Amino acid sequence: MSGEVCVHTWPCSYYLELDKRWVPGKLSLTSCSLKFAADEAQETLVSFPLSGITAIKKEASHFVFSSITVLEKDNRKHWFGSLQPSRNAAFSVIEHFWRELLLSQPEAPLPATKGKELTGLMACSQKRLEDTARVLHHQGEQLDSITRGLNKMESDLDVADRLLTELESPSWWPFSSKLWKMPSETKLKGDASTASPKTLGKEGVVVRIPAVVSQRTASHVKPGSLTVLVSGLEIHDSSSALMHRFEREDVDDIKVHTPYEISIRQRFIGKPDIAYHLISARMPEAIPVLEVQFSKKMEVLGDALTPSSTKTSSPAEKGCSMWHTDPEETQRSCPGHRGRAGEAG
Description:
Strand order of the largest sheet: 11-10-9-8-14-13-12-15
Number of strands: 15
Oligomer: single chain
Structural class: alpha+beta
């Protein structure tokens, strides 16, 4: 498990069934496992794969303390309480990765051969090339639209020049009426008017992934999705309602915190920026596409490497995340919880 990327870490307490007490520590989530390490001894008390989980629920210990319970296949139940910044935030992220892992598991795993590995690499490369081709095709359409716009501007300048010539010509000049409209000008305007609806046609979806979305506070997260279009980005909630749309030119920066977590921001002067934080088990599928479309606006923070290059990195090195906790809220809720929860039995 030391080679896995740490997706997120939450300060919390774990209930020891044998000692009948709560132990403070940190709950860490990777793409394939969940583990809890105590603060005092700095040792891992529990660790289990996500594939071995049968249920994740929100419950209350003694009907007072809000907790998250995790049930394994051997009917062993784990209690996690005092989760910061909130129980809902931790539950949404853990449940998302658990469900995505279950959906991605093959029905009958077969031993991989060299030929299958090469075929998989070719299929992955083909998909990346297709995504890149869509983006390049859209850029070509934009260049064509710009060319048509320049041609129309040139035509308008020609018309203005003719009008000025008409105004400057004497009233008795017999050829002035021919300067009003030329056949080539009419044809050019017709071409521009018929070409504009084509450029405003349906946008192509490059990739769409489910995600856990947070906008301002880390304690208020909701399930949703991220859609990468050839002309921008869209963020939807779980009911597919549009939360926000970023036009391609509106995105000021995209920060990659981990291979599974990014933040998107649009800056403003005189009012708050628009920023969204997204975490997804399928984020590695979207990051290469974002790199193609927003190469100059992408920023990789720290050691946020791709999953394929994290074999030599430990979760401690990768345990960086932008969803920090509020220190005042931690002092306000954690000590009281732990003091009372120790009486739970």
